[in-house]
Design a protein that fits this description.
Elements: E1 2-7, H1 15-28, E2 32-38, E3 51-54, H2 65-70, H3 75-86, E4 90-93, H4 97-108, E5 118-124, E6 131-135, H5 145-163, E7 170-174, H6 184-195, E8 201-206, E9 217-219, H7 222-247, H8 251-271, E10 278-282, E11 287-291, H9 297-312, H10 315-325
Parallel strand pairs: 1-2, 1-4, 2-3, 4-11, 6-9, 7-8, 7-9
Antiparallel strand pairs: 5-6, 5-10, 10-11
Helix pairs in contact: 1-9, 3-4, 5-6, 5-10, 7-8
Length: 326
């Protein structure tokens, strides 16, 4: 039985969508137990289906590490504490990103040997059914060359564990594919990976090629990775809006849409962040999943799906072993 702890408060759309997601997820996953932390009156629909821990405080979206740590009775802190104290498999939240990641790192501690934790998420590619693992997408503002090298290792282990890729093709995100391109940290990380004969290291990759399906893992510092994430989401949203507008132009374009709507839906589903569900904080002692702050019930359902998969694949212990043997 896989046990997942959920911070049910703090998301943009409120606790009701989290409850809806949990109930739908439990219907489809009889081998999962869920513990929900939040205001018990708002979680009443979960009674008899999930264990409820009453937590009266909600962590504000803009909260930082210190504020979160002071809110000991918040749903977020209670979720992380419950996971740690009772040895549950994963914790999920769509609350404050900075607060959640900081609190999880401080409470669960880092895996021995890990220099910095990294937020990792699968991105869709132009090859149907294939995702590329990109990290760090926002856990850090800046990283050293040595940390980028370790991100490459953790990304490789994640790709092997979750997607079954035997030798993941691993790239450094840069402003050019040539060896001499990139910020000083990227150049040095390139040198270190090359000297170490890092298995699967394939050099630099530009942002415009990161989602073409060639790469299995793309490594970036947290600042650059977060810009890539938000730029990708923004471009996908703009493209979706422009395409809809084009098809609504006149009667002929509306008729044309009838012939391509299946392909258009497939493209829309591929680019929709809701299908990804959540990102995992790699490097800490536990499966920590951050769902999008604006998650609806469908997106949070998929965040729970990510948490379950990480537990089933034993990703945390795979990373521990990989770091020990590095």
């Amino acid at each position: 039985m896989i046990k997942i702890v959920v911070d049910a408060m703090g998301g943009d759309k409120g606790s009701s969508i989290v409850c809806e997601a949990i109930l739908n997820f439990l219907k489809d996953n009889k081998d999962v137990e869920i513990i929900a932390c939040g205001k018990k009156e708002e979680l009443a629909s979960l009674e008899g289906q999930a264990r409820i821990i009453d937590a009266r405080d909600i962590v504000p979206m803009e909260a930082g590490a210190l504020e979160v740590m002071r809110l000991k009775n918040s749903s977020m802190m209670m979720a992380i504490k419950t996971m740690k104290d009772e040895g549950y498999d994963a914790v999920v939240s769509c609350g404050s990103t900075g607060g959640f990641l900081s609190a999880a790192t401080i409470n669960l501690k880092m895996i021995p040997g890990v220099k910095r934790a990294a937020l990792v998420a699968p991105f869709p590619t132009q090859i149907k059914g294939k995702n590329v693992v990109i990290l760090d997408i926002g856990a850090n503002n800046e990283n050293s060359p040595e940390e980028l090298v370790q991100f490459a290792l953790m990304g490789k282990l994640y790709s092997q564990s979750v997607y079954g890729v035997e030798v993941p093709k691993t790239y450094l995100l840069s402003n050019g594919a040539e060896e001499g391109k990139g910020a000083p940290e990227v150049k040095e990380a390139y040198k270190l990976l090359k000297e170490a004969n890092f298995e699967g290291f394939s050099g630099n990759i530009e942002a415009r090629y990161a989602l073409n399906g060639d790469a299995d893992v793309v490594v970036a510092d947290g600042f650059t990775g977060n810009i890539f994430l938000k730029s990708s989401e923004g471009i996908a949203k703009i493209m979706s809006g422009m395409i809809k507008k084009a098809f609504k132009k006149n009667l002929w374009t509306k008729l044309g849409y009838l012939h391509v709507r299946k392909g258009m839906k497939e493209m829309s589903d591929t680019l929709d962040y809701k299908n990804t569900g959540g990102a995992m904080l790699l490097g800490v002692n536990g499966a920590v999943v951050k769902a999008h702050g604006s998650s609806d019930a469908y997106a949070f359902y998929n965040a729970l799906r990510v948490a379950k998969k990480l537990a089933e694949k034993d990703v945390v212990n795979q990373i521990k072993k990989g770091i020990e043997n590095a």
